[in-house]
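re: that chain from earlier
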Amino acid sequence: MGESTDIVWDGEKNRSLDAYRVCPCGVCSKNRKGVGYLSFSDASGRGFTIWIQNEKVFRGLTQALRRLRRDRRDERSLGRSPLYGA
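^ sequence. v structure.
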């Protein structure tokens, strides 16, 4: 594995946990190489970004996040807790 590709930061507030594509303007990827990144931040702006260098990994992560959201939505519609299965 190459150099460290994760960053912990204070900044943008309430960023949803998701896999994001690099923007076409190149600003977000100026100092990083990759096809996209996994990122999240809380209400106070404390968050993280993990750069993803491989397209196959990016697509797999995107699909996994979609499945997770779908499963959580389905569990809620059935009146079950998505975390505890009760």
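The chain has one domain: 6-75.
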